[in-house]
Description:
Strand content: under 5%
Shape: globular
Distance between the termini: 59 Å
Helix content: over 70%
Radius of gyration: 22 Å
Largest sheet: none
Number of helices: 10
Amino acid sequence: xxxxxxxxDSMFMRLLNRIGDVFILxxxxxxxxxxxxxIGPALTALYYTAMKGITVGEGYVTKYFFxxxxxxxxxxxxxxxxxxxxxxxxxxxxxxxLKQWQEARLGIARIxxxxxxxxxxxxxxxxxxxxxxxxxxxxxxxxxxxNAFLLSIKFFPTTLVVLxxxxxxxxxxxxxxxxxxxxxFLIGFGAMGYVNGALFYRCLKSYLVTDDEKTDDAxxxxxxxxxxLKEGYDEKDDKKEKIVSDEKDALSEEEKE
Length: 257
């Protein structure tokens, strides 16, 4: 009896393909983070690849990853350094005032602790959203940071979920460093990318449409914010697809003539 071939469109095969994509994405991301300064481009490429996988389907993980890594390298490095410096400064500031309160019970220390916590939270919220934005939109650095802050407030539940996921992963490193790091290298970072990517895509998809594609039932605030979010640029892939489409239309017109 001849064996029947695999049904590559079955749920089981799609699940295997997705697991393979998660594994590849996790390993590639981990390797690209080793120089530390490249964490920003790696995060941008991680979310770009994950959101592509959600919208397009399985496969082409390394192609999408290194495409985004290369195109966003310089700006993502600068954004990462700015955010890392802010997190470090506000973290040290919080530690200093906590120490002052514990040792001298200074009244000013209580106020500065609250200020430091707020500033540290703002920096963390920006860090959460800025790399998904960099993955999908072409904007200047200050615009990306501003929009990341605004989106982190508008979609605050998503911000909290991503912060919780990040905190749980950090706790894993603290509780069982060897096991956690090896697990993250093999599959954890890729899984995080797809989970967070799905959350970010839900937040960003309403801003990825062109003016002609906006629906009448969209909120006016969303339309205005979408224009500000894009800052006069088309979404990266949509822009390329539009150019190709225009070229094809032009060729069709010439053939008719």
